[in-house]
């Protein structure tokens, strides 16, 4: 009788471990990397004011976006699309950025469509 209780206890422990492992796997599957197509569409909308970009490249060196309007972006380091949109608003009066280059060290070169240039 005692051996049946021990065996039943071991089986319950195994079931708990399997359920825990299954839960971990399920959570891992839900937190997958973002879809590259979504990233391209978001970059085109925020940077090119369009639903598409002329060219898009995401490499170890950084993100490069070329818009149909002729604007180009080379984004390196820890800068977000939202920060670039804010720079367009502040420095270019939301008239658009012609050229944008950021470095991993944080330096930013910004040229607006109105001809003004900035090094930040």
State the end-to-end distance.
Answer: 78 Å
Shape, per Cα inertia axes: globular
Task: Please outline the major beta sheet.
Answer: 6 strands, mixed
- N to C succession of SSEs: HHEEEHEEE
Radius of gyration (Å)? 25 Å
Mean pLDDT: 81
Structural class by SSE content: alpha+beta
What is the count of helical runs? 3
- The portion of residues assigned to helices is 40-55%
Strand order of the biggest β-sheet: 1-2-3-4-5-6
Textual characterization of the structure:
Helix content is 44%, strand content 23%. It is built from three helices and six strands. The protein has helices spanning 2-30, 36-48, 81-91; strands spanning 55-59, 62-66, 72-75, 97-102, 108-112, 117-119. It has a six-stranded mixed beta sheet with strand order 1-2-3-4-5-6, covered by helices on one side. A hairpin with a 4-residue loop joins β5 (108-112) and β6 (117-119). The protein is globular and about 85 Å long.
Break the fold down into its secondary structure elements and pairings.
Blueprint: H1 2-30, H2 36-48, E1 55-59, E2 62-66, E3 72-75, H3 81-91, E4 97-102, E5 108-112, E6 117-119
Parallel strand pairs: 3-4
Antiparallel strand pairs: 1-2, 2-3, 4-5, 5-6
Attribute tags:
about 120 residues, alpha+beta, six-stranded mixed β-sheet, 3 helices
Would you summarize the structure shown here?
The chain is α+β, with helices and mostly antiparallel strands.
């Amino acid at each position: 009788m005692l051996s049946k209780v021990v065996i039943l206890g071991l089986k319950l422990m195994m079931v708990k471990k399997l359920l825990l492992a299954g839960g971990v796997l399920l959570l891992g599957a839900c937190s997958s990397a973002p879809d590259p197509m979504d990233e391209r569409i978001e970059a085109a909308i925020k940077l090119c004011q369009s639903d598409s970009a002329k060219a898009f490249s995401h490499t170890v060196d950084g993100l490069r976006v070329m818009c149909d309007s002729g604007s180009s972006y080379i984004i390196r380091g820890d800068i977000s699309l939202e920060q670039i949109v804010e720079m367009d608003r502040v420095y270019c009066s939301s008239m658009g950025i012609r050229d944008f280059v950021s470095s991993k060290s944080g330096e930013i070169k910004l040229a607006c469509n109105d001809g003004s240039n900035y090094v930040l």
